[in-house]
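Limitations

Structures in this collection are predictions, not experimental determinations, and the ligand pose is part of the prediction. Treat each record accordingly. The example that follows, with cobalamin as the small molecule, is included so readers can see exactly what is and is not provided: the inputs are given verbatim, and the output is the predicted complex.
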Amino acid sequence: MINNRTNYTIQESPHFEIFSEDQKEQIFNGMMRTLQYTGANVHHEGAREVFKKAGCKIDGIRVYFPPEVILKALSTVPPVTEVFPWDGDESKKIVVEKKRSYFGPGPTPPNFIDTETLERRPYLRKDASLVARVCDALPNMGYVQSLGSISDVTNGLADVYEFADMVRNTTTPIMSWSFTREGCRDIHRMGIAMAGGEEAFRARPNYIFYGEPISPLVSDFHAIDKCIYCAENRIPQVYSPCAIGGGTVPATHAGQLVVALSESMVGVIAAQLINPGTCVIIGGVQSILDMRFSIYSYGAPELSLLSAALTEVVHYCGLPMYSTSGCTDTKKMDVQSAMEASLSINAAMMSGANFVHDNGYTESGLTGDIFQTVMDDEIISMARVVERGVEVNEETMAVEQINNVGPGGHYLYEDHTMKWFRSHWMPSLMDRNSYESWEEQGRKTMKDRVLEKTRDLINNYEGPRDKVPGKADEEIKRILQEAEERIKKEEPKKQA
Amino acid sequence: MSMDLSKISEKLISGDVEGLKQMTEETLQTDVNPGDILNQGLLPGMDTVGQRWKDGDMFMPEVLRCAKAMSGAMDILRPQLAEGDLGNAGTMIIGTVAGDLHDIGKDLAAMMFEGAGYQVINIGIDQPNENFVKAVKEHKPSLLGMSALLTTTMPRMGEVINSLKESGIRDQVAVIIGGAPVTEEFAEEIGADLYAPNAGSAVDIAKEHFEKKST
Ligand code: B12
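Predicted complex:
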């Protein structure tokens, strides 16, 4: 059919916006004013040198960023970056660009909900491969983090062991973290081993690195040191704070956005000065300090609002956004966590954030709960349906079919129905049974179904462990050994 | 002349930092006993604040404002107080341990102790073990507070306690620890005297400890 429509606007997916262009510009300018007049502390001489050469004013550890330095940095950020699964599976490729969202778990809580006992306990090494394997199987986890920091390996090597175990148990790209540059380098060597060489990694980076400035307006030595390392090696990286509304940043949302944007921008500028065109993702956890219980709230509706608002401003800067959802203040997966996660996942989805982390965080970020991640996976798939919107064309309007069936008929026999009904969303956890079947099948609650599905994956889903090339496997083992030796050498230094 | 010291309590509860300082100074000019200003004015005020906070009638920033007012008044009052007036609210050293940069929780705890009448010396974040020991030697505090937010830095707290022992000053100071991943069991394990799950309860827990000790 000839398309004879003229001057026709297409808008299929829902339009969700918090700010007008003017407001985004205002927040952006607030960041420019803050970095110019307040500046930020950078505890790293080398980084300060780089800033100084670029035209920043330095006063002790304080760095003041003139607008032209900020604008220049923003002019070299890449509009798009690709991250590849190590086995070449194109369906798991990540394209970091505006309006594409990838959801995943979060990094480093000290505790984990034991998948057998359902009790909280310290996070163990075995949990890292479990989380990787389960996430590998979940269709809506677009990237993977560990949901914990390993407590049962040599002190100071939780970061390296985590990556070593996870990368061999999932092909979904990992977002890693480390204590220092040394850990960062070990992880990078493993990334290279999995890619099949340094050149191969540059062409097809297979993981993303995550680091954090300190709110308010501080980049500590290790944070900026790792940021520089990633820039030098073209490792796509996140540089984003945990801004605590009313604590580390103003209690007003606009003020929070200004500070959060400013502290991240320090990493963006450093990275672009060191290696123009390298990928830096900013954003972070944006929520409020609960002034009654003095906890950083991961279930607050403000988290949804602030994250979506920051997404708009970050995209306005031309940068990708690291957002937050699927997390809760309750202690483990329950009704409260489902409510909080539904709201935050939907808001993050609508906002178009690029990476959305913390799906599976309970107890305000102190515990990782893989059951919550599995439930979040279902919520994410529901939110995607809303986000996909409504396609409008001759075929989908089906005016002809409507005419065929006419008043009073039904559509069950229609070819058109046969062709299209499968596009309806199918639940994997939601109950739509009749009362009788529900009763017959044991009156299962959502919690029962989540436990069942998760444990089934744990027990029966193999993951890609067997596909890991022997050479890479050997190399990873060697890197772990060398890391042990490195720590032994570092320890006495620390004591001295 | 007798003075209505409840006015002092009210000023404190309203969180009027400058107003309370002025009122404390004015009251000191009268013949009111400095100890009474503390025990019948300031401390009952802070008790009310604490109670209202627990009841959910007052919130963190309001409580901290009152604590600041208390601390300002104490700076004026402290030199005038007689030995014993202060009870156990002496000096406190507080800091975040080496390798750890988290400071909000530690600062909240510090402010709450100031509010309880302590002279708080906040030595900051990322403090090497020896700085805690040095501070204890130098200031002879009744209480040493340590904060750690990372499981990897928690062991530093035990090391500091061991260093205090080695220096022979462990018995001079009560050690209280806190921070999100820290637990009661961990406190016991490393031989800390006290653990508090949050800044609000910390002051009560310390108070109880000292009361038990003095009886
Ligand atoms: C904000 C935050 C940060 C900010 C800190 C900013 C700042 N100015 O302080 C930044 C972004 C810098 C940060 C950095 C890191 N963080 Co952090 N952070 C947090 C977060 C989200 C909130 C902490 C907070 O401020 N809470 C609010 C305050 C009010 O609560 P609080 O600190 O617990 O204090 C209360 C009580 O604990 C108690 N208390 C605290 N101290 C004391 C002391 C005494 C004496 C007493 C009596 C009581 C007491 O009273 C307070 C008030 O009630 C926590 C998650 C969480 N839920 O705790 C992670 C968390 C602690 N961080 C974590 C990690 C891993 C890191 C990093 C290593 C990340 C990285 N890869 O770079 C770095 C480490 C940097 C370093 N070397 O320290 C992990 C720790 C995991 C683990 N295994 O230990 C956590 C749990 C997050 C997570 N889920 O992964 N972090």
